[in-house]
Amino acid sequence: GSVRVRAYSSSANLGPGFDVLAVAHTAYYDEVEVRLEPGTGQVVVESVYGPYASQAGRADTARRAVEELLKITGTDVSNHDIVLRVYKGVPPGRGLGSSGASAAAAVKAVELLLDLNVSDSILVKAAGRGEAAAAGSPHYDNVAASLLGGLTIVSFDKDGQLYVSRIEVDAWFALFVPKIEIGSSKTKLMREILPRQVSLDIAARNWGRLAMLIAAAMRGDLRLMGHMMMQDEIVEPIRSRYIPCYDTVVEAALEAGALGVTISGAGPALIALASSREDATRIAEAMTRSCKCCEIEDVKIAQTA
Ligand code: HSE
């Protein structure tokens, strides 16, 4: 038989949570179907289809994520191939965790297919390493959210052990997706422009805000969560310069009642936080109206996935 798994889009960082925090949302999803065929132990992508198939390349992240999972768990399928069919519903290159969603769906599907029964942190690790194929360096924030849903925190201890935590958050989002081409290795570029070093006082302020954001999310205090989403001093000020309509759209969203607005992942998409569908709808409309300086690819209302 075959196993089919869905993984939702996600927004990493949420302001001060660079490479640590992400939230999964129902805006978009990928699906991966896996099956075993007689073969020689290969992982093969049979087809990539769906609205964003042509922009997604050969779904290398999904394939590599599965290879990592087999390696980490020491699984041998030597007289079989693992065949993947990838549905690409998450637009790539927008900061919406597209490659992470494929990787997440793929490792989860293979875990179920082969009855591997591994921990969440092993799935996240495998999917994150697979994602490195697309982003240039592994990061685990998007894959954690896509795999587990909700608001997720990823953290490595000093020995390199990965910890993953998930927080249930009942929230609505308006996602503003501009049509800006920053090239194929967009995440890589958007990481290269960031400072290598940060002063201790800025770092301390920033992690205080991240801690406060997480505490707010745990209490269901969306107002405080949204406020803290807008307080990053390290990454957002630099990346926002690459989004031409950033100031205008953020202002419009706040005027329409957004509790917070920030760059989604490495951008250029923006994510606004709201507490109801009505608010999210109004915010999405305001963001759409405000944008005069770039073409809009999509605007979505979503809920925490
Ligand atoms: N945390 C990563 C970044 C996510 O902001 O570069 C990229 O998808």
Automatic annotation (TrEMBL):
What GO CC terms are in its UniProt record?
cytoplasm
Per its record, the protein catalyses: L-homoserine + ATP = O-phospho-L-homoserine + ADP + H(+)
Q: In which pathway does it act?
A: Amino-acid biosynthesis; L-threonine biosynthesis; L-threonine from L-aspartate: step 4/5
**Keyword Transferase applies:** yes
A Pfam family of the record is: GHMP_kinases_C
Q: Where's the GHMP kinase C-terminal domain?
A: 214-292
Reply yes or no: does the keyword Cytoplasm apply.
yes
Q: Indicate where this protein resides in the cell.
A: Cytoplasm
What EC identifiers does the entry list? 2.7.1.39
- InterPro entries named among the record's database cross-references: GHMP_kinase_C_dom, GHMP_kinase_C_sf, GHMP_kinase_N_dom, GHMP_knse_ATP-bd_CS, Homoserine_kinase, Ribosomal_Su5_D2-typ_SF, Ribsml_uS5_D2-typ_fold_subgr
Q: Which SUPFAM superfamilies match?
A: GHMP Kinase, C-terminal domain, Ribosomal protein S5 domain 2-like
Indicate which residues the UniProt annotation says bind ATP. Answer: P91, P92, G93, R94, G95, L96, G97, S98, S99, G100, A101
One biological process term in Gene Ontology: threonine biosynthetic process
One GO molecular-function annotation for this sequence?
A: ATP binding
Q: Which Gene3D superfamilies match?
A: 3.30.230.10, GHMP kinase, C-terminal domain (3.30.70.890)
The protein's UniProt keywords, in alphabetical order, are: Amino-acid biosynthesis, ATP-binding, Cytoplasm, Kinase, Nucleotide-binding, Threonine biosynthesis, Transferase
Taking every annotated instance into account, which residue ranges of this chain make up the domain GHMP kinase N-terminal? 62-150
Question: HAMAP family per the record?
Answer: Homoser_kinase
Role: Catalyzes the ATP-dependent phosphorylation of L-homoserine to L-homoserine phosphate.
Q: Which family does it belong to?
A: Belongs to the GHMP kinase family. Homoserine kinase subfamily.
Name of the protein: Homoserine kinase
Organism, by scientific name, is Pyrodictium delaneyi
Q: Which lineage is the organism of this entry classified under, starting from the top rank?
A: Archaea, Thermoproteota, Thermoprotei, Desulfurococcales, Pyrodictiaceae
Gene for this chain: thrB
